[in-house]
Each structure stands twice: as C-alpha cells, then as structure tokens.
Amino acid sequence: MPTLSSFVLAFAGISRDRRIHTKEIRLGCEPMRDRSKIGEHAGQAPPVKPRDNVPRGILCMMAATVLFAITAALAKWLVATYPIGEVVFFRSFFSLVVCSLFVLPVTGFSVFATRIPLAHIARGLSQSISQTFSVIAFMLMPLAGAIAINFSAPLWSAALSIVWLKERADAARWTALLAGFLGVLIVANPGADSLTLGALFALGNAVMYGSVTVAVRGMTKTESANTLLMWQMVTIAMFHSVLLLFGFRWPAAVDAGMLIFSGVANAAGQYFWTRALQLAPATAASPFYYLMLVWALIIGFLVWGDVPTVGLLAGSGIVVASGLFLLWREGQRRRSETPVRAPVVAEPVECKACAKG
Fold this sequence. Notes:
The chain is an all-alpha fold.
C-alpha cells in the first residue's frame, strides 16, 4: 500500500501553478519598459515548469497498482505460515533498504534533520499499527474485500477534515461521503461472522490512514518529501521489529525470497506512485490507482479461489465512485481558488530622439 506521503502528494498535486509568461514588446525606437518585476529580480525569467506527460504518468500509476497488489497478495500468502510481526517487519525493513540505497547517496544523513522528531515518531507508530491491521485483514478476509475497505481512507480523511480542520462541506460532498460509507458497509457485510473481524481490522486501517493524513498536512510545510519518506521508513521498521519478540520462524529459502521481494516490490510501487504524480496531474493519474482492486480480484480468484460476490462488486463500485467524485470536487475547488494573474501592462517610454525630430 502507498505510504502516507503519497496521499499528501496526490492532493498537493491537484492545484498546479500555471504561470503566465510575458514577452518583451518593442515599439518605436526603444523597448517598452515593464513596470512589474517577474521573479526576485527585474528582468529575471520565471522558472519554467516541465510539461506534463499524462500517458507516462498513467503507466507509472498502473505499474504501482500491480506492485501494491502483489505486495498485498504476498502478505496474505506468507501470514498463513509465518507470524504477522515477521511478515510486516521483512516488508518494512527491505523497503527501508531499497529507499536508503536511492535517497542517502544524494542527500546524505542530513535528510533526517528536522525540528519535529516527535511528530515523525508518532506518525511512524500510527503507520506501523495501520499496516499491521491491513495484513491481519488480508489474513481474515478475501484480498479484494480488504483492499476495497482500505479504499475508504480518503473518505475518512475528508470527513475528519470537516471535523478537525473546520473545512466547509456542501451537500454534494456529504452525499459522496455517506454513499462511500454505505459502500463500505456493503463490502464488510456485517451479517457474515466469517468476515466481521477481518472487516473491522480493514476499517481500522482505513480510519487510521485517513486520520493521519489530516494530521500530517502541517508537516509538509517544513519537511521535504525525502525527509518524510526516510523518517517514515525508519520508524515503521523500528516499530515492526518489536513485533519479532512475539514470534519468529526461520523462513525457508523460497519463503525468504518472497519476504524480501515483498519489501522491494513495496518500495518500487512507492517510486512509481510518486513518479506518476510528478508526470501527470493527480486528477489524471490517481483514478487509475483503483485498478489495484481489479488485480486483487484476479489474484484472489487464481490463488485462493475467491469468487467475488454481488455485495463485494456493488460496494466496491460505490466506494470507488465516491472517492473519484471527491477527487474531482477537490480539483474543481482548488482551480476556483487559484488566483489568475493579470497580464502585464507595459507603457511606452518617450523617445527623446524622436521628440527632437
């Protein structure tokens, strides 16, 4: 599953700054003088943002969904044989190893410099519990059902933003939230005893994910993406290592490879997710994240023989539709709030030579 910084990046990517470039206009004998200053110094060209590459961004998002689905399937497979703490530790530890190999050679250990270490530790603790809940849910219920409930995390984030951050919500937003929560209930199927416990863990993961998404927004004002990523990877691996005290079984060679690959695949999925949001607007790339549910349905059927029920398909469709609607509404709101810069008005300078003539 993607890390919390991914969700923050997704919503941050919705509002992209569209700069207006002005050209120097010449009239008469001398150039027109621009009274406004672009950039920090007069005459300095504004920075040019790289153009979006939507097709590549979508392909990266699709690759991320495949890797995240494989990671979830590996967790479900391995937790049937090995302790939960061992499975989540191997995944988090080797995700840390892969991220460190790419980040630290560029940034060095200065990437850990921060003024809010306690906030990072609290975030890591919450994420470690959240990820443990998700693996327990994979163990207790069909893979696609657990992932569908996890998709409700943005709904909880939106709901908690209204309560904690006092964000305004119109009737359309409330309707989407209520519909999404109805979809979660349909997927959870409270009347089936075999699914109730797993659904509760999946729901607990979604609620924690959504709540921390709201709390972490303030951290992005002072912390870089690399700092958020590395602190999260280190703290999650540290907290998951404590779970090894409750059980450890030496893995067979094939299983050890699967445990290691789960961490590598998780880190690679994180990379492709982030890359997708760099190449394309979130409103273009993020909807394809829901393909993860399709891969989960296929893997669940081929590996465990899970046949999707009508309730699972209907509830998942409602949750996905609600999430997409909220994403679209957020994009519309951000665009409406983005001020449009007025074009630069230049005035001609009187040509003294022409005046004398």
